Each structure stands twice: as C-alpha cells, then as structure tokens.
Amino acid sequence: MKKIGFLSFGHWSPSPYSEVRTASDALLQSVDLAVAAEEVGADGAYFRVHHFANQLASPFPLLAAAGAKTSRIELGTGVIDMRYENPLYMAEDAGAADLIAGGRLQLGISRGSPEQVIDGWRYFGYQPADGEDHATMARQHTDVLLEVLKGEGFAQPNPRPMFPNPPGLLRVEPHSPGLRDRIWWGAASDATARWAAEKGMHLMSSTLKADETGEPFHVQQRKQIEAFREAWKEAGHEREPRVSVSRSIMPITTDVDRQYFGHEGDSQDQVGQIEADLRAIFGRTYAAEPDQLVEQLAGDEAIAAADTLLLTVPNQLGVEYNAHILESVILHVAPGLGWR
Asked: I need a labelling partner for 299 at 20 to 30 A (CA). Which of 98, 130, 197, 287 fits?
C-alpha cells in the first residue's frame, strides 16, 4: 500500500486559457481540490509555498480551510521556506491549523529554493548572522520550531497577568500534540537527507535533487532514501520514518488528456544549474496510457522505496480536470503496481 496525494504550486494567471485567474481563485480552488481528492480516494493534499510570485504563499489559512472542509486526507506543504519564517509565530499558526484539521497536518519545510527576488527573506526582516549563510539561518529557524512544537514551557510568566496563568513556564499556544512528529524536510542532497533523519524529521524528496553521481534521477533519489533511512536507524528514533517523492504522472485515458499531455511521452531526465553551486537533475514526466504507465513506473526505484507519492498537478486546468487526473491514477494505475 502506498499513500497517494497531490502537490499543487497554486499558480494563477490572467491568461484566457487559465481556469485560475486570481489569487482568490487559486486559494478557493485549492480547497475544492482537497475536497475532490478526498472524494476520489486520494490520501493527501499538499501545497507549495513561494513568495513574491503568483502562486500560493501563506499556507496556514489554506490548510485550516481545507481541514474544515475535509475529514480524512492528510494536509501538508511541500515546502515552507524556513528562511522567511518566525518559528514561534509559525508554531502558533501550525498548531491552530492542525487542531482545526483534527491532527492531519504533515508539514514539509526546507531551506527553500531560488525565489523571485534577491534575498527575499531580508524583506521579511531576517538576515544571516555575521559569518553565516542563509542555509544556516534556515536550519536555526528549524531548530527553534522543532523545540517549540514539543509543547514544553520556556517563557517566564508575568507576575501580574491579565488572565490567570498555569504554574511554571509558559509555551506557545495553541499547542497541537503530535505535530512535532509530523514535520518533513525537503532535501536536495544526500547529506541534508541524513541531517533530517538525525533531527527526527521525515524525508520529502521532490522532482529534482542535487546531481551527485550522474546516475538516472530515480536511482539517485533511491540512494538518498536509503541514506536517510540508515541515518534514522543510527539516530535511534522509536517512530517509523516516512518518505515522500513527487512525480508528474499523467494517465492518458481521454482525447483531452492526449491533447494536453500526449507530447510528454518521450520525456527524459534533465540536468541544469539552478544555483551557482548546485547542479540539479530533474525527473521526467510520465505520460502514457495506464498499462504503459504501470510498466514504466514499475522501474522507478525511488517510487518503490517511498511510502508516499505526491502527484504534481497542473492546477490552472481547474479542479474538475485535476480531480480526473487523480482518479485516473488511483483507479487505473495504482492497482497494477500494488499501491491499492
């Protein structure tokens, strides 16, 4: 059995060809897609976070709204850029959203990817300390968040408070028990995957990773997963680790599917330089009729190694069409691979 969810970047565009013209459309349709995903039997609704872009950015109002409209599926992010985050305020928002959702949040966080503006976190009031870089700052914010989510008191109470305090030091409220165990790290390299395991965070591996060996994408990603699980075991965590991978999978079952994605059938891995010091490998798109997809996906070593598969969806094609993609994977592809 494998959990299957979707991952949406939440793009919007005023283009006449887009079903998502405004930020309001993107947010409301994201909630509707989470509801539709639950109805067709999917297991998760995950949302990407980007700043200074016509894409989803502030995740917690969206997660809370989706949590109030659904009852079963996991709700998560893939990923929140910790360079931009106040970890205490984030703990409050996350705790509230998780309580509204009944403890279903699965929060993916990370150092983040190249953004729309130069050093965008500076506009949010953050900058690395002298001698440190933005990646170190992201990890420091993460350490604070993980500590706060434990729910232990750390703040000295006012001796003359407006309202009575419980005894002892105070914690951030609202606190949602168990949320600390549902934090995932989006890792691009094997080293960061091992670091995430040491911290007791689950692994979220996307459609790209650092090209560290020159091998096919799915092979490098499978080795990253193995490194993560070995580090988790060495750290001695009592919980079971989880691993998600993201893929673009487009079953072609209708003429409309063929019109949109028929040209993607020959897709291959790609390599590119996304930062000055980061050569990345991007995974292929899978687009074919279901029986062909079953054969192709059976050879994807990273999907086989993961317990959760996140399907990247073309959200600008609208809720109905994206629900159709999810249902096609669940009904026509997953059973042939033993995922259902």
From this structure: 197
